[in-house]
Amino acid sequence: MSVTGASNVLVPSVDLLVYVFFVVLAVGLVSLLVSRRFNVSYIPLFMFLGILVGPVLGLLNRNLANELFNYIRVFGLVMILFTEGHTLSWKMLKRNFKTILALDTIGLLLTAFIIGGIFSWLFHVPFIVGFLFGAIIGATDPATLIPLFRQYSVREDIETVIVTESIFNDPMGIVLASVAVAMLVPEASSARFLEAIAGYIGLYPAAVVFFLYQMGASILMGALLGVVGYNILKRTEVRDFPEIVIFSLVMAFGGFLLGELAQASGYLVATVTGIVLGNHKVFFRDDISVVKKVMLAVEREVHFNESLATISTIFIFTLLGASLNPGIIRGHIVQGVIIAFALMLVARPLASLPVLKWRSFKEYLFISLEGPRGVVPAALASLPLTLGITYNNPDLIQWGETILSVTIITVLVTVLVETLWVPVLRRELLEVRSIEREMEKAGYRPNS
């Protein structure tokens, strides 16, 4: 069911791709139905059913699932972040700015150092190797959190803090990984941009400059693209299907490409574009007739985007599960689980301590205990091993295999544990309106 192209690259046939899409969508449908019936999170169901149809039953080829995952993770994450940008309240972002900034800078750095030190001690490797692992695993995952918080109706201000942290910590994680790679493999192509800056001002100042550039350039491009998108909706008749669907895709992927071409964060550009469009009433002061026209278009756009984001989530986590190599995981299962719980119960809470300056202790606990890892760490997990093979570095190959397996285990454990305890943490740590409490006592659950 596949053909080989002239370049000796295995190209899946149309029939095979249709088969994969059918299996993944069937997994998604079953997971959603089970989730609704038993009121459990559907994210771990996607992953475990993906493992079932992949490595266990062999219904999906693991290598093909991994190849498709590398493409779909980009498409899916762009749509998820662009969609979530629309729903993030600018008022809430401003109100929680200090908390978000602390988590995305001090919090992420502390997480990388703490879990990197634990990794280095547990596996007896140099600290810079542990730091590389910490940078890879440092970013929390919006693809996991967004549908989860929607499902359990987590308070808007808390959702805004955690989801926005997840969105904005990707660039920082990439910078930290680039610094570690530059120190381990200076000749690596992924480190060349940072190395070029470091040639003038040194490695660590270059890391700061690189991070500030990524954040600043991405936010600026996203804001400008949002203004362009608003004026298109304002001055044209783009507000009905299918025009609004095409407009949405052009904005999302145009923003991503613009950011990547500028060596910034394409994901952040797409997110900021969504924020501007979703909060157009705040940023643009127009006549009521114009506001209503744009609002109608944005509402239809979001309706389409939410459906596509859900489908993207199904594909991301099902293919991630189907692409896992059981052999790699088996070799480090005990150490991997130790690292995962150290991340959840030690590194993340310690790194989140600055939040106590602005939040209550219970809110701090909820925020510190909700940081599952997912798409971004999974995507970066193979980087050290790839670099070791590319540059014929035996030490990096050995370290890379360990980092790959422990990262995948950590993703699995954090997604499973931190999705399953969301309803409990929400009930015990967050204030719930009295009417919701009475409904829950009567047996009602959100989205049940």
Automatic annotation (TrEMBL):
<feature type="transmembrane region" description="Helical">
    <location>
        <begin position="161"/>
        <end position="185"/>
    </location>
</feature>
<feature type="transmembrane region" description="Helical">
    <location>
        <begin position="333"/>
        <end position="353"/>
    </location>
</feature>
<feature type="transmembrane region" description="Helical">
    <location>
        <begin position="16"/>
        <end position="35"/>
    </location>
</feature>
<feature type="transmembrane region" description="Helical">
    <location>
        <begin position="42"/>
        <end position="62"/>
    </location>
</feature>
<keyword id="KW-1133">Transmembrane helix</keyword>
<feature type="transmembrane region" description="Helical">
    <location>
        <begin position="128"/>
        <end position="149"/>
    </location>
</feature>
<keyword id="KW-0813">Transport</keyword>
<feature type="transmembrane region" description="Helical">
    <location>
        <begin position="68"/>
        <end position="88"/>
    </location>
</feature>
<keyword id="KW-0812">Transmembrane</keyword>
<dbReference type="GO" id="GO:0005886">
    <property type="term" value="C:plasma membrane"/>
</dbReference>
<feature type="transmembrane region" description="Helical">
    <location>
        <begin position="100"/>
        <end position="122"/>
    </location>
</feature>
<dbReference type="InterPro" id="IPR038770">
    <property type="entry name" value="Na+/solute_symporter_sf"/>
</dbReference>
<keyword id="KW-0050">Antiport</keyword>
<keyword id="KW-0406">Ion transport</keyword>
<dbReference type="GO" id="GO:1902600">
    <property type="term" value="P:proton transmembrane transport"/>
</dbReference>
<feature type="domain" description="Cation/H+ exchanger transmembrane">
    <location>
        <begin position="29"/>
        <end position="424"/>
    </location>
</feature>
<dbReference type="GO" id="GO:0015297">
    <property type="term" value="F:antiporter activity"/>
</dbReference>
<feature type="transmembrane region" description="Helical">
    <location>
        <begin position="304"/>
        <end position="321"/>
    </location>
</feature>
<feature type="transmembrane region" description="Helical">
    <location>
        <begin position="403"/>
        <end position="425"/>
    </location>
</feature>
<protein>
    <submittedName>
        <fullName>Sodium:proton antiporter</fullName>
    </submittedName>
</protein>
<keyword id="KW-0472">Membrane</keyword>
<dbReference type="InterPro" id="IPR006153">
    <property type="entry name" value="Cation/H_exchanger_TM"/>
</dbReference>
<feature type="transmembrane region" description="Helical">
    <location>
        <begin position="241"/>
        <end position="258"/>
    </location>
</feature>
<keyword id="KW-1003">Cell membrane</keyword>
<dbReference type="Pfam" id="PF00999">
    <property type="entry name" value="Na_H_Exchanger"/>
</dbReference>
<feature type="transmembrane region" description="Helical">
    <location>
        <begin position="197"/>
        <end position="229"/>
    </location>
</feature>
